[in-house]
Amino acid sequence: MISFIAKRIGVGLGLVFVVLTLIFLAIHAVPGDPAAVLASGGASGTATPESIERLREQLGLDKPLAVQYLDYLAGVVTGDLGSSFRDSRPVVTTILERLPNTIELVVLACVVGAVVGVVLGAAAGRFGGWVDSLVTAFSSLAISVPVYVLGTVFILIFSLTLGWFPAGGFVSWQTDPVGHLRLLLLPALTLSIAFIGVTARMTRSSVVETSRMDWVRTARSWGLTPSRVFSRHVLRNSMTPVATAIGLEVGIMLGSTVLAERVFNYPGLSALLVDSVVNRDYPVVQGIVIVISVLFIAINIAVDLVYRFLDPRVR
Amino acid sequence: MPENTPTADSASTTASAVLRVRDLSVEFGSGSDWRAVTHDVSFDVRAGETVALVGESGSGKSVTAMSVLDLLPGNARRRGTIELCGEDLVGAGAARMRAVRGRDVGVVFQEPMTALNPVYTIGTQLRDVLRAHARLSRPEADRRALDLLRLVNLPDPERRLGQYPHQLSGGQRQRAMIAMAISGDPKLLIADEPTTALDVTAQAEILDLLLDLQSRLDMALLLITHDMGVVADMATHVVVMRDGRVVEDAPTARLFAAPEHAYTRELLDSVPFLGRSEIVERQPTISLRVVEPEEPAATRDDPTDTVLDVRDLVIRYPGRFGEKPFVAVDHVDLRVGRGDVVGLVGESGSGKSTIGRAAIGLVPVTSGSIRVADVDLAKASRAQMRSVRRAASIVFQDPASSLDPRATIGASIAAPLRWNDVEKDPRLRARRARELLELVRLPADWVDRYPHELSGGQRQRVGIARALAVRPSILIADEPTSALDVSVQAAVLRLLLELQAELGFSCLFISHDLSVVERLATRVVVLNRGRVEEQGDTRQILHHPQEEYTRRLIQAVPVPDPVVQADRRRLRLESANAS
Amino acid sequence: MLSRFRRIAGAFSVVRWTALAFVLLLVVLSVLAPIVVPTDPLAQDVANRLLSPGTPGHVLGTDEYGRDVLARILHGARVELLIALGASAVAAVIGSLLGLVGGYFGGVAEFLTMRLVGDVLLAFPPVILALLIVTIYGPGEWTLIAVMGILFAPGFARIVYGQTLSVKRLEYVDAAKAFGARTATALFRVVLPNVTAPIIVQFSLVMASAILLESGLSYLGLGVVAPAPSWGGMVASGQRYMGNDPSTILVPSIVVVLTILSFGLLADALRDLLDPRARKGNHA
């Protein structure tokens, strides 16, 4: 088990390295002068020679490529991701300010999504009939509504019409705990709906498939009660693929927060990312992409470990 | 052995029947649309008796057995009566059924790998069963679990409690499964093809265990099987089913000695009988090539007359990261002469299929040599492989998976001609496909059909036609009949023999079934764990085996004769008691 | 033949038929957009801004610049569907090839296709990778097709890989090799036809995902560039006026949800129709 964890983390580190290299290449493999491309925003815009020159200096693009690459890797390892074009603050500082807000949002949404999704999916798979139809209809709809549409509609209903929640913004936990939670709730709910849909669907189909397995019939032949057969011999076995799906979904949610934070004007990492993309603040974009990708890889390692734990055959 | 002699007629002893089934029909469907899969099935299982429910696939034997405990899928319903010690189970409520399951009636299922939950240890699952019917503390449950594992002779029972099903061998898993089934001290044990997934030696052990437990625990045994040998070995009474109906119901001795129904006769005739293929040969329905004493050995040793020559063959599968490589074939020598049929026999994991696959270049050779058509496969160039492919071809075990479901059978049969550039003209290939279909006794205009439109036996005929497309000098037959029902198996074997006589190809016939090999092989090679135990003339090997392993293998095969089986069992018990 | 009809009828419920009809309607209307709604989707008419749906001449009303909403929806659909189709096609070709090669050959090929390319791409949350590329190359239709084509390729690769692994274990692939099929023949004429069903299902799912992602990027102003019409962009600009007139966000929202939902339902129907495992379920 320990050797497996070590191996898995080793593979994860390798993946981080490849990802870092790709991000570096993404900017340097651009045909033509990367500084000019970055300053102009693709082929569409134009930039003054001065701004291009400034950019080149800021990014160290005048040095040889190998030196740039090593500088970049050394920077990442020592926690130096450069400085923002806009306010010249270190990128790491800015990211560390915003990261906790995003993590709080994602964790809350994931927990709600996983719990509600598994319960709904298990109920649909076990009882069938109208429960199944209802859950299936709900989850089909849930995964089809884009986050920005759902958030906007929630604001329209719960803020503008009913006035139950503020339309968006942020207060820190220290200044106003209740207000903090009230502001957290709508974006978290918005994010969790699609998560519920995916988890419920996955759980349902996994439960249905497991119910057909031979060992379920064996358990029935022992005279176990239906609820015990279900909880021990169906649900438990169904959780292995669900755990994998949830892991992937968490990663996707790390991306979807971009939209939720934008809709609710929530000061998380992703809102910063969008601002930086719009303002072409490349060092900040690069820093955030690195942080989120590393988080994503870490989550996937965690999922693999859970998978090992759930299925003795691969232990 | 008093159980083996039928004492009374079924009508007179209904009082002592543990299980009494009358006019049972099982129907599948929903709403107003119900389709019956069994019709008015009636039989009894009396105390201390072993009743075998026999039939081919689709006969409804398993459905009937499962309906006793209502373990059928949700879209099934039962009509008729099922009485357990006089109590009706068809109308019983769910709570009552749960009390019966696992306590009054235990079930052993066919495939212990899938019938046990892979995520729980054997101990956890045993505790589950025990606690379903009795309030037991954890130490009490553990102690009972251990007792049960000892009762089923599972070696090293303390360690097994903490192991997962995948860590046990097939036979050990089935022992664990039996321990769970008898944990409630049942009056009736239902065993649904309990040994079909096992090798013959493991099968013999499990069957012995079942009979031993039956007498010790005083259970009635309902045994579902397709194997007449197992029936002869185990049953006191036989119920033969076909297409959802009972066709014959008789005491075992009478059924084998004087079968009344035509289907029972047909079934018994189809069963290969190890050691007595001459007897079967006389049956008019089956034509068999007489196994001649042997042509002079000198002709076989002539190298120019050798079609397949395997020398000092070693095949190793590389171990995964950090594991030892697995030696599948370990210094094997064997030779197939022109026109010879050589049987390659062994249990699962003996390496027999690996050799067959290596002989057509599907598995790389680690060391040693395989020569086909004077080409050493280990060193063959692409062009040489092409000539090998025209000289050697293969019939696979499972006709359901060895034909491409997306290709018509005509295309499948003609494919070897196209891929090996034997016949470039598509029209001529199509004509050849039609000829080949006729050769295997199928209508020529079936070329446009797809595999799923054919039955298992028909598909295997297509497989044979494809293998013969290139007019091979040697045919590798890799368990070509083991996925088929006995009556179909007999017909396919007959076809193979007739074609072999007609076309004169040599054949390496790979099988786990000694009695099948006896019917068509002139020579036999016995494999065990990748090594040759013994090889030689078929009669010599099967009637006078020199090696202990071969002897055990032959002894383990149940033959369809209750008298022989009873003798054997007595001998086995005596030798067990003596030691 | 009759049984085939019955199978199709079994896989398609009323809801799924409706979904199919909606997708077809959307395709037809977007192709014929200039004929159906002759109004220029970019033509501003400040005098008639923010008209409610149902106004004569503007069936779905007008936006804050007085542009016809129906025209913008249908012209938006054109761009939306073209991008999604392009991206799905790119992803299907790249992904299937990777999965087929990785699954069939295993070993080094598997490492290169599934681990090195597949896992690395999956190590980026989709929206994040899209934003990185947009920052560097700028927004626009071609960027979107390229980035989403790459993003969704691992999904195809994983499915085809898994399917190839299980098909490879079946004896008919061994049979093809044993009867002299060359590697390319075995791969493309034997394995590929037997893994197409999940590819088709995944294609429909990826269409839905692509529309979801694209409209999100357009909502952020980083997808289709304004003033060109896009559904996400319409929701973004309607947000400011939704307090007075909810239809500004509801009309594009409903269209985008229905479209994604329809492609999703279509995928479900196709799965029931094509997936042998799903079919096995109802034979008993």
Automatic annotation (TrEMBL), chain A:
Domain of life of the organism encoding this protein: Bacteria
Task: Please state every residue range assigned to the domain named ABC transmembrane type-1.
Answer: 99-307
- What keywords are annotated for this sequence in UniProt? Cell membrane, Membrane, Transmembrane, Transmembrane helix, Transport
Please indicate if the UniProt record lists Metal-binding as a keyword: no
Q: Where in the cell is it found?
A: Cell membrane
Membrane among the record's keywords?
A: yes
Q: Which Pfam families match?
A: BPD_transp_1 (PF00528), BPD_transp_1_N (PF19300)
Q: What is its main location?
A: membrane
One GO term of the biological process aspect: transmembrane transport
Q: How does it sit in the membrane?
A: Multi-pass membrane protein
Stretches that traverse the bilayer: 12-30, 105-125, 137-164, 184-203, 242-264, 284-307
Q: Name one GO cellular component term.
A: plasma membrane
Family the UniProt entry places it in: Belongs to the binding-protein-dependent transport system permease family.
PANTHER family named among the record's database cross-references = DIPEPTIDE TRANSPORT SYSTEM PERMEASE PROTEIN DPPB-RELATED
Q: What is the protein name given in its UniProt record?
A: ABC transporter permease
Organism for this UniProt entry:
Labedella populi
TrEMBL record, chain B:
Keyword line: ATP-binding, Cell membrane, Membrane, Nucleotide-binding, Transport
Its GO CC terms? plasma membrane
Record GO terms (molecular function)? ATP binding; ATP hydrolysis activity
Name any one Pfam family assigned in the record: oligo_HPY
Principal place of residence = membrane
Respond yes or no to whether keyword Transferase is given for this record: no
The UniProt family comment states: Belongs to the ABC transporter superfamily.
UniProt-recorded name of the protein? ABC transporter ATP-binding protein
From TrEMBL, chain C:
Q: Which UniProt keywords apply?
A: Cell membrane, Membrane, Transmembrane, Transmembrane helix, Transport
- Domain (ABC transmembrane type-1) ranges: 77-267
Spell out the GO cellular component terms annotated for this protein, sorted alphabetically and separated by semicolons. Answer: plasma membrane
**Gene3D superfamilies assigned to the protein according to its UniProt record, in alphabetical order:** MetI-like (1.10.3720.10)
> Which GO terms are recorded in the biological process aspect for this UniProt protein?
transmembrane transport
Q: Where in the cell is it found?
A: Cell membrane
InterPro entries from the UniProt entry: BP-dependent_transpt_permease, MetI-like, MetI-like_sf
> What topology does it adopt in the membrane?
Multi-pass membrane protein
Transmembrane domains' residue ranges: 12-37, 81-104, 116-136, 142-161, 191-213, 249-270
Q: Which family does it belong to?
A: Belongs to the binding-protein-dependent transport system permease family.
Its name, as the record gives it, is ABC transporter permease
Naturally occurring in which organism (per UniProt): Labedella populi
